[in-house]
Amino acid sequence: MSNIALSQYPQASPRPQTILIAILLGLFALGAIVVSPFGGLKQSVLFLIGGLFGISLYHASFGFASSYRKLFVYRDVRGVLAQLLMLAIATLLFAPFLLAGSAFGQSLRGAVAPVGVQGAIGAFLFGIGMQLGSGCACGTLYTIGGGSSMMLLTLLTFGIGSFWASLTGSLWAGLPATEPISLLKSWGWAGVGLQLALLGTIALLLWEWRKSAPTAADIPSTSDQPFNLKHFLYGPWSLVFGAIVLAILNGLTLLIAGRPWGVTWGFTLWTAKMAQWLGWNPATSEFWSQGMGAEALNQSVFADITSVMNFGIVLGAALAAALAGRLAVKKPVSQWAIVAALMGGLMMGYGARLAFGCNVGAYFSGIASTSLHGWLWITFALLGTGLGIRMRSLFRLSN
């Protein structure tokens, strides 16, 4: 059991919050019913899969931003190694279905996008933002579900940033970029093998680098506590188990939704609908006046797969927190943390739109789809992370 996960679960664990658990299970049942008219059984299933994502993220404490920060500051590689395992499993799960192009009568598409300067800039901004905001896209949702009030501020400006970027797309359209490149589409299973070899090489290099760290002996070792049904229900989960479950859930999302897991489009859409309610005219925007933007604005958010899954993530994380006996509202630690959260959310939102996705849509789902834009994303997001970690001290944030 990972000590990263165990850090949120002290030995004297509170008892499950029975009343809250019952309420949340009722909300899950109600939510599945509410979304069904907008997509049938598929929409309800995707809502519940979103809930499973939320439970998994919370119980495994599966943070992306925190894993990168621990890598840079302490050479603690465990979070990133878990991500590499997750990517390898998801790559193997995605490959046969993406090669076939369809499954169970439904066409499938991977998260594949152009590789270019725009994406690099966006990922760099996102990397800074997730360190200032102390979370990523899915991290914002699951910590809100766990009771974080500060992450509500991050979510607010995340949406504003992504909506703003949707209005300024023409500013970036002329920057150099290639057509979308997929190793799977270009080289078939040889491309999959190349990606798996790269993931394995990175894992080995990280492990050797960690062993040579002066502080390596100070990093707690993985607990040998056995994993049983009690841990499965109430937490904590190991990072390894969390990585496996997240990869499987993304594979299920691909098969049911027809495309992999994404998060930030939901934030963009929610903010656009709010702006429209406040008087903004979508006709003034090329993106929102035609195509998928106009279609999404004219439909309920319950018809949008990303939104429905995001709602599920929040509820799932809340259920996991209640099962662990820790669902409670948590106040921001300081006014400086609030300012950092607002700035971080704005940078993540704008950056995610430029980079064709966030740590989920571009990095996790992108690399699992063998898209080179996913590799570009993580490269420049880590560069931004390095700067973001240095900037945390300006807002009196600890590492």
Description:
Helix 6 (117-132) runs antiparallel to helix 16 and helix 8 (150-167) packs parallel to helix 16. This protein is mainly alpha-helical. A hairpin with a 2-residue loop joins strand 1 (102-103) and strand 2 (106-107). The chain is built from 18 helices and two strands.
Entry summary:
The chain is mostly helical. It is built from 18 helices and two strands.
The secondary-structure class comes to mainly alpha
% residues in beta strands: under 5%
> How many E strands?
2
Overall shape: it is globular
- Major beta sheet, strand line-up: 1-2
Low-confidence stretches: 1-7, 220-224
Number of helical stretches of at least 4 residues: 18
Q: Tell me about the largest β-sheet.
A: 2 strands, antiparallel
Number of domains: 1
* Amino-to-carboxy terminus distance: 22 Å
Give the helix level as a range of percent.
Answer: 55-70%
- H/E topology pattern: HHHHHEEHHHHHHHHHHHHH
Key attributes of the depicted protein:
mainly alpha, 66% helix, 399 residues, 1% strand, single chain, disordered N terminus
Secondary structure elements and their pairing?
Layout: H1 3-6, H2 18-35, H3 40-59, H4 65-74, H5 78-100, E1 102-103, E2 106-107, H6 117-132, H7 137-145, H8 150-167, H9 183-187, H10 189-211, H11 229-234, H12 239-257, H13 264-277, H14 291-297, H15 305-323, H16 335-354, H17 359-368, H18 372-392
Helix pairs in contact: 2-3, 2-15, 3-7, 3-12, 3-15, 4-18, 5-10, 5-12, 5-17, 6-16, 6-18, 7-8, 7-15, 8-13, 8-16, 13-15, 17-18
